[in-house]
Amino acid sequence: MAIGQPANRVDAVAKVTGRARYTDDFYRPDMLIAKYFRSTIAHGRVISIDVSKAKALNGVEAVFTYEDVPKIKYATAGHPYALDRSRADVADTLLLDRQIRYMGDEIAIVVAVDDLTASEALELIEVEYESYSPLISPEQVLSKGAREIHPGQSNVIGEHQFECGDLEQGFSQAEVVHEGQYETHMLQHVHIENHTAFAYMNDLEHIVIISSTQIPHIARRIVGEALDIPWGRVRVVKPYIGGGFGAKQDVILEPILAFLTMQLDGRPVKISMTREECMLCTRNRHPMTATVKIGTLKDGTMVARHMDTLFSTGAYASHGHSIAAASGSKNTLLYPRTAIGYHARTIYNNIPIAGAMRAYGSPQVVFALESAVDDTARKIGIDPVEFRIQNGARQNDLNPLNQKPIQSCGLVECLEKGRELIGWQEKMSQRRQQTGNIRKGLGVACFSYGTGTYPMNVEIAGARIILNQDGSVHVQTGATEIGQGSDTVVAQMVSQTMGLPMENIHIVSTQDTDVTPFDPGAYASRQAYIVGNAVYKAASELREKILTYAAEMTDKSVSDLEIEGRNIVLVDQPGKAIISLIDLALDTYYHTDRGGQLTADVSHKTLANPATFGCTFVDITVDISLCRIRINEIFNVHDSGVILNHSTAKGQVEGGMAMGIGAALSEQVLIDPESGKVNNNNMLDYKVPTMIDLPDIGCAFVETVEPTSAYGNKSLGEPPVISPPPAIRNALLDATGVAINEIPLAPQVLFRHFKQAGLI
Amino acid sequence: MFPLQRYEKADSVQDAIRLLSDNPEAKVISGGTDVLIRLRDGKKAYNQLVDIHDLDELKICDITADGTIRIGAGISFSEVIASDIIEKHLPHLHKAAETVGGPQIRNIATIGGNICNGVTSADSASPLLASNARLIIQGPAGKREVALSEFYLGPGKVALDQNEILIAFTISKQDYSGYSGDYFKYAMREAMDIATIGCAAACLIDGNQLVDLRLAFGVAAPTPIRCKQAEEAACGEIINEALLTKIGDALAEDVNPRTSWRASREFRLHIIRELAERVIKNAIENAGGTLT
User: Fold this and answer.
1) Closest CB from A120, A625, A666 relative to B188
2) Partners of residue B267 in chain A, C-beta under 8 Å
3) Which chain B residue shows the shortest CA-CA distance from A672?
4) Could you give the residue range(s) of every CATH 3.30.465.10 domain in chain B?
5) For domain B182-286, which architecture applies?
6) What distance in Å separates the CA atoms of residue A502 and residue A198, rounded to the nearest whole number?
7) Lateral strand order in the sheet of A44-50
8) Full-prediction pTM beyond 0.90?
9) At the topology level of CATH, where does B57-174 sit?
10) Tens-digit pLDDT profile for residues A189-236
11) Coil, strand or helix: which one is A674?
């Protein structure tokens, strides 16, 4: 039984010994370095640009400006191609542009023999701007007569609403109604490996791009679209990658690199962003404001809830309105037995570009919802855990959006387990009225999330398994290993289904769009779930082929045979080899008259999107006069279906919670409200918590079995980040009585609110 | 890649002074944790360097015959932390050293560089100020001495000529003997951060009397400062909670923090007062005193 075992990561040894090769490890001796010339204003237009001095600098190969690039607008979002073109992503990006939409926008690019020469050349470029007043806040963007950030397009790039059940009736029935405003700010992914890629041509036709990307197959398509060349001419290779968290679910460097190498006779050209560039000019988490209204009966039954959200995408659409839309849908399953309304808008503004980031809008929406849920529980005087158990989703509840039953759901069990782990009831019963400077608080929040993107997008995955000459197998999938551990669980799946030992399963980790089966990539916590169904199909097929071949070799019936480790055995005589897999494999390859290479190569579409659930429980201490929160204990409890690998699952949860704690307490991209300048696009001033700042992180699982998955699993990659912030906010409310409706709960924010509340 | 134009490694302080005198464009590099950041940012003023790292003359850490503590400018923060002398006699400086950056920074960054860099957030500045540290500086004309309180001229500006080298800090016996101390770094993180406010106090007590208080802050003004008004309000007074309030009130005259995007003046003022009370209280308790 390989599934459920804490198997070592298949790439662990390669990574800890430094042998795993990342994009920057692929050195080419004649490689050129490219660097962007970026705007120093947030909104405006280039009137003139003079690059002659830069071009004349020794070591500079070329300088390109907005005048030199194709006038093709393309969409950067890492979504599968939309057959219905009315639903295609917003194409609003040029390779280089004279219109300036945020401070850092790309106007020109220098290609030089090395990094320093390129930097020096940037300083020689002379540019003259026409400046417009930056539209930073939603009020500015939505004000009457505000300039269109993308001329000809509305500053509201998307808007939608839906209603499940009768909202009006729900609210009229409500005995208690809570309404509140909530706000979250811009965050950064801070993946360890910055965005980096290079491109070259091996012949006159094909472009090879080595890139640190989550979406190699989508990148291939978007490069083709951006340059108007056939997609088959583009080959994208993804080696090992040092994290992405969604920032690499956009096509950022690949199109310009393909353009540059084509312009420069196929010479390799590389862009390695600095940390500062990466934090300013790639993608971030959307700032959001929300109004939440919840109606309940006095007995705690939730009867109606409505949410109105506003997401800021910044200078370019990137994922457009999808994030506001997806996050609005995914939370409906949390409290499904009530009328639900949702209205959302996404706007452009002159700030850095928001895109996909771990949990895709849900951390913002769930912060608002779960804060409002606590506020509601307080208003009716019900324990917040009880209130959630009373209203939370249960198995066979109907999904409000499609009226289909929720087939696996362990939310209530998660809440019960978390309550136990933190000692909720005991601590609450010992609670006295708190008056001093140091106060303690307990908080809870929960979430629901999806697994993949169906039915908004296709959910396709490919898997290819080959029986090697030595009886081992090589496995290629389109699943993109980005550090989340998909290679390891794929090996476990093959082991489970084929009966092979883990050491006889070799995973091809590198994605190469010329070679590997198609899969759109690592996002939406889809990878292990979607690829699982393809792997199951391929592994079953190859198993069948091997047993059929064994039957032919041994003159037995297929149904009497089974693969057991390195051998074929009789089903009723396990442990007794009738032929080894090596002998069988050699026969398939080298018998002069029979056989052939045994392979299975499948592509599978999954037509489901199961909901996952979970919660955070936290115990904090607040030092009021120092405006500080310390986490004493924190637990996440997840229903992610069957846990494929407890070690890597725990790693995912711990990492996600750390990210959530950072979002709750300290992280925020600070933008000057006048100029649009980002003040803290570096690791000193953007406060990712250090190990000392983090508490011991606890996690637990409630294992359900998801019937639409071949291995019973559901999403786990993104969900751990969602519920820590509202749980911490609710604990702060419990400790101090002060409801702070924004994150991060950083010292200066606490200072402002504590002062207002008269605590300091 | 760094845009380095010229690099010379000095083999003695004398050699360093000669190299600096020969090339007026050259700047000193020691640990490099400030200089290399500026060079990476493309600041050309730092592209010609004279390296004084690991010179034995700058690595002294001892007590002289007259009881003066000498701390070499080239001592790393890890070495400050490892020093028994500093741990025993200058606990506030010891504690401050522990709050600098992370382990890698503390292993390479020097206490001399921290001061010569001239920034108000330097963790070692307020404890050294609280202990009346003096600086021994060597230049082409020989050695001179200056009080740390006179060394800071403005933000990023110190009284050090281009061809002068800070050799060591000295703290006389009367400035540490019998004093207890404490330091509090208030920052957004517990490590790898710069101070929002840094506060150091050194106290001399006699029974329930606060004989002497030296209170110093980082980031409470454009340079690290001593708080003369607060100190005057405290000296000779009976130790009790009311005294802490009195000190806190007097402090308002001493400090002048500014609003930046990192923190507002109002917030810094609040934290300054809060830290002063906590740090003085701890320093008094470390000296065996109690607040009544």
Assistant:
1) A666
2) 627, 747-748, 751
3) B261
4) 57-174
5) 2-Layer Sandwich (3.30)
6) 34
7) A99-100, A44-50, A126-131
8) yes
9) 3.30.465
10) 999 999 999 999 999 999 999 999 999 999 999 999 999 999 999 999
11) coil
